[in-house]
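Structure in, sequence out. Go:
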């Protein structure tokens, strides 16, 4: 399976935070061919281990990309059959009005998100964004029919499949962070071509969008020497400042900030320059809001890094990435991992 095919399968699938088990088998099937060991832990993380070339006391490096996506959840069924809903993860209500959705009840049910037409709104409502609590999902059934198929707590996802744009760019829901899973997949294939001392754990984590629980428990179990989160960063668009964004097609963003180990970050940039891999700097003075934060504060503290894939329109159903950045990010990770040895690790981790 090539990386783009895996990305399409994952993005077209469903896996809202807490319900990632629906795409677990796709990830296991893809990574199994390239792993020495693969397992699923108690929380649902998929852990694929690629062993290093040394036999004992190997360095352990954990790569984390989260497999969950933001979504919606049924909270009420009205007398007329309309479904009221709430959000799972950070959703801007302005982006869901008029969307096609899939209600994941006893079977998948097509529906649409609606609200009061503008013609019937009060003048005072015209310039205000419609709140989520004022929207409903219409699947076309009466309340009696809905209740046979839908329960309170069922998840809902936007109905969207991956689209090819021009060049190497694609648009989809859930590229945050299934693009990160694609990077991990590309990286494990790259590591099959080069020697590396470290044992590398490729962890597809759960629940990043709501709690980072998967990275916390995964890092506790593995207790790695180095943790690296692979997530997405804000891609440059006309309305955003270039200083706050990273550009598509120009390589991953290497994060600078309090969550990031300075010597490891310096080594990462040196490797990028050595192998002519394009990269950008991403500033995150506070918590990164990624699995890097969770890994950093696990156990006694794990030296951590964060690599960000440039992505436009984050947390919408039309997120956009450039597949070139997937390849650049994976190569940088692979060469960085190959550069870490038992002899060099202690010096890199010193402050």
């Amino acid at each position: 399976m090539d990386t783009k095919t895996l990305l399409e399968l994952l993005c077209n699938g469903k896996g809202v935070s807490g319900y990632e088990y629906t795409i677990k088998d796709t990830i296991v099937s893809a990574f199994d061919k390239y792993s020495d060991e693969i397992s699923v832990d108690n929380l649902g993380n998929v852990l694929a281990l690629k062993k290093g070339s040394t036999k004992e006391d190997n360095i352990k490096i954990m790569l984390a990309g989260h497999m969950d996506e933001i979504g919606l959840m049924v909270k009420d069924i009205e007398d007329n059959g309309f479904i009221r809903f709430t959000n799972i993860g950070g959703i801007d209500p302005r982006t869901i009005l008029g969307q096609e959705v899939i209600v994941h009840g006893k079977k998948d049910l097509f529906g649409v998100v609606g609200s009061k037409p503008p013609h019937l709104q009060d003048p005072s409502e015209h310039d205000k964004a419609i709140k989520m609590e004022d929207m409903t999902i219409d699947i076309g059934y009466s309340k009696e029919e809905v209740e046979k198929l839908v329960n309170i707590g069922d998840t809902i996802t936007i109905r969207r499949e991956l689209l090819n744009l021009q060049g190497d760019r694609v648009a989809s829901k859930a590229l945050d962070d299934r693009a990160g899973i694609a990077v991990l997949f590309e990286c494990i294939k790259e590591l099959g071509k080069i020697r590396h001392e470290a044992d590398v754990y490729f962890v597809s984590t759960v629940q990043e969008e709501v709690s980072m629980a998967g990275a916390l428990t995964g890092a506790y179990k593995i207790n790695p020497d180095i943790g690296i989160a692979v997530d997405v960063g804000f891609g440059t668009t006309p309305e955003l400042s270039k200083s706050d964004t990273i550009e598509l097609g120009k390589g991953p963003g290497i994060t600078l900030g309090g969550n990031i180990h300075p010597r490891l970050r310096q080594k990462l940039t040196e490797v990028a320059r050595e192998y002519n891999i394009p990269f950008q700097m991403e500033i995150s003075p506070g918590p990164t809001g990624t699995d890097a934060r969770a890994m950093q504060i696990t156990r006694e503290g794990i030296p951590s890094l964060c690599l960000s894939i440039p992505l436009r329109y984050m947390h919408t159903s039309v997120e956009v990435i450039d597949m070139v950045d997937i390849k650049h990010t994976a190569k940088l990770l692979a060469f960085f991992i190959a550069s870490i040895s038992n002899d060099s690790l202690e010096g890199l981790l010193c402050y």
